[in-house]
Design brief:
Keywords: Signal. This protein is mainly alpha-helical. The protein is built from eight helices and three strands; from the N terminus they run αααβββααααα. A three-stranded mixed β-sheet has the order 1-3-2, with helices on one face.
C-alpha cells in the first residue's frame, strides 16, 4: 500500500506557498487525497497543478479537474461555498477522508485520460455501433463515459489501498450517483453496478488498466 506524508505534497503543488495559505477545509481535503496526488505526481509523473479559488462561483463543485496547456488543473472551490461538503452528508466523520480520497482518485482518472490524449475517445479495438454525430447528445454521452471511467479508477484505487473499506465506498458512490437523471453527465450506475465488489478488478495491474477493463464492459451496454 502506498503511504505518503502531507508536507511533501504541499511542496509539490504549484501555487501553494505553505499550509498557512490554506483554509482548514482545504487542508483536510488535500490531506485526505495526499496519497493519490503524490502517487500521480511522483510515480506517474502526471502534470498536475493544484489551484485554490479565492471565491467559489455559484454552482461550483468543491473539487474539479480541467486541462490547460498540457497540464491538469485540480481546482478547489471551497471558499465561500456553503455547499462544499454537502456531498459528504450522512457519511460518518471517521469515513469522510476515505470518500474524499476516492473523489481525488476520480479526478486523477480524468487527468490520466487527458494526459494520454484519449479524452472522449473509445478504447482501442472498441467499435461504436453508430458513427459519432456532433451535438449536445453525443457530448453528454462522451462526458458520461469519462465520468464512468473516473469512477472506476476511484474504486480500483480503493480496492488496491483500502480493500477492507471497498464496500462502504462503493455503496456511497452508488448513492451519490442515483439522484442523477438517466441522461445526466454523471449517471454512471451502468459502470458502478459492474463493480459492487472489489472482485471486479484484476489484481496486479495499474489502477488505470484495471478500470479500463471494467469500463469496456460498461461501454458495451452504453452504445
Amino acid at each position: 500500500m502506498i503511504k505518503r506524508t502531507f508536507l511533501p505534497l504541499l511542496l509539490l503543488t504549484s501555487g501553494l506557498a505553505s499550509a498557512a495559505d490554506l483554509t482548514e477545509m482545504e487542508i483536510r481535503w488535500l490531506k485526505a487525497g495526499a496519497a493519490v496526488l503524490s502517487y500521480a505526481k511522483q510515480d506517474l509523473k502526471l502534470p498536475i497543478d493544484i489551484t485554490v479559488q479565492p471565491q467559489a462561483r455559484p454552482n461550483d463543485v468543491p473539487l474539479a479537474l480541467g486541462y490547460d496547456n498540457g497540464r491538469c488543473k485540480l481546482v478547489l472551490s471551497m471558499r465561500g461555498n456553503d455547499n462544499a461538503e454537502d456531498i459528504l452528508a450522512g457519511v460518518p466523520a471517521a469515513q469522510r477522508p476515505l470518500m474524499i480520497e476516492a473523489m481525488v482518485a476520480h479526478e486523477i482518472g480524468h487527468c490520466w485520460r487527458y494526459a494520454q490524449g484519449v479524452w472522449h475517445a473509445l478504447p482501442a479495438g472498441f467499435e461504436a455501433r453508430q458513427p459519432p454525430q456532433p451535438g449536445a447528445a453525443d457530448e453528454l454521452r462522451d462526458t458520461r463515459r469519462e465520468e464512468g471511467y473516473a469512477d472506476l479508477v476511484a474504486l480500483a484505487w480503493i480496492q488496491q489501498q483500502h480493500p477492507e473499506q471497498y464496500a462502504s465506498v462503493a455503496a456511497w458512490m452508488r448513492k451519490v450517483r442515483e439522484p442523477a437523471p438517466a441522461v445526466g453527465s454523471h449517471s454512471t450506475l451502468n459502470w458502478l453496478q459492474l463493480a459492487t465488489t472489489g472482485a471486479a478488478f484484476t489484481p496486479g495491474l495499474p489502477v488505470f488498466e484495471q478500470a479500463n477493463l471494467v469500463w469496456r464492459q460498461g461501454l458495451l451496454q452504453d452504445r
